[in-house]
Amino acid sequence: MDAKTLKALLDKSVLSSADKSKISKAYLLQFGHRLPVKTGCLDCYRDGLAQMYASISSGKRLKAGEVVEYNGRWYNRHDYPLPEFILKNYPDKIEKI
Question: Are strands 73-75 and 94-96 parallel, antiparallel or unpaired?
């Protein structure tokens, strides 16, 4: 999904079943694992949309298998957005999306 489509879905007040299916498929393609959805979760799909949108809008993520610690927190390829410190100090561990 492109940024425009993601933004349009984020702006919708109610997501249809078809929307949720599209989000799940896009999430799997983008991150390589299923969207974590809990039973009865109202925000799981919106959280997934926000992750995908942040990922696309920043255009950068950590490479597969890379983990970086910053300020007591561990970051991997699924964390968005990455702190500027990581982007500046670990360019060899970052890939463009």
Answer: unpaired
Q: Taking the domains of the chain in order of start, what are their residue ranges?
A: 1-58, 60-97
The four Cα atoms 63, 71, 3, 93 give a dihedral, to 10 degrees, of: -20
What distances in angstroms separate CA 9 from CA 38, 87, 91, 92, 95, one per listed residue? 20, 28, 32, 33, 26
The answer to whether 75 touches 88, Cβ cutoff 8 Å, is: no
Q: List pLDDT tens digits, range 50-91.
A: 888 877 777 888 899 999 999 999 999 888 778 888 888 999
Q: What is the pTM of this model?
A: 0.66
